[in-house]
Amino acid sequence: GQQLNQSPQSMFIQEGEDVSMNCTSSSIFNTWLWYKQEPGEGPVLLIALYKAGELTSNGRLTAQFGITRKDSFLNISASIPSDVGIYFCAGRSSGTYKYIFGTGTRLKVLA
Amino acid sequence: KAGVTQTPRYLIKTRGQQVTLSCSPISGHRSVSWYQQTPGQGLQFLFEYFSETQRNKGNFPGRFSGRQFSNSRSEMNVSTLELGDSALYLCASSLSPGGTDTQYFGPGTRLTVL
């Protein structure tokens, strides 16, 4: 099935460090969503982006809708142990009627 | 407001059996989408229902089917189960159909086929 390219695949970081991850598409998107999934649970929506160039924050999380409309970025500042999980991006392009999901970034935070 | 609920949370079946999973969307949401999540393939779209009608369908065999009731609750059925159907099945609800709106996921049903 179709998936978005998401990088990095996994990250091991020290508590307090900042984290950056991104998602790229070969198509132009008009919506980007970022989710976090913990083991045994469904993805939880973190941030939704609807306009190119849009920068939106949710606490220590900041996401941006790339100006080319083919990418999106998620930053986590001052990571803490509870940030552990898998982060997914999801995008939708104009003219399609479903979301495509990224391959996920597995984040581990070392205390 | 209660979130998306899915039942059961865990299921164990054997090959050849069939299974029905249930999803109740967030109150007021009329669109329900179903996804299959596996380690190898990630999140794959199965189908979407809105106002009791299937609006969109992914690339899954006909053994996978669904329906939606007038109260927006949705069920997904998988017949003649295969080992490869073992996965986490997630449903997501939204106000509007067709991915035009933000989707909120339920906790999922973990299906194991032996």
Short note summarizing the structure:
The complex is a heterodimer of chains A (111) and B (114). Helix content of chain A is 0%, strand content 52%. With 111 residues, chain A is mainly β.
Structural overview:
The complex is a heterodimer of chains A (111) and B (114). Helix content of chain A is 0%, strand content 52%. Chain A has strands spanning 5-7, 10-14, 19-24, 31-37, 44-49, 55-58, 61-65, 71-76, 85-92, 100-101, 105-110. In chain A, strands 2, 4, 5, 9, 10 and 11 form a 6-stranded mixed sheet that branches. A 5-stranded antiparallel sheet of chain A has the order 1-3-8-7-6, with no helix packed on it. Chain A contains no helices and 11 strands. With 111 residues, chain A is mostly beta strands. With 114 residues, chain B is an all-beta fold. Chain B has strands spanning 5-7, 10-13, 19-24, 31-38, 42-50, 53-57, 64-68, 74-78, 87-94, 104-105, 109-113. In chain B, a hairpin with a 2-residue loop joins strand 5 (42-50) and strand 6 (53-57). Chain B is globular and about 35 Å long. Classes of the chains: A mainly beta (111), B mainly beta (114). The interface between A and B is medium-sized, with 24 and 27 residues.
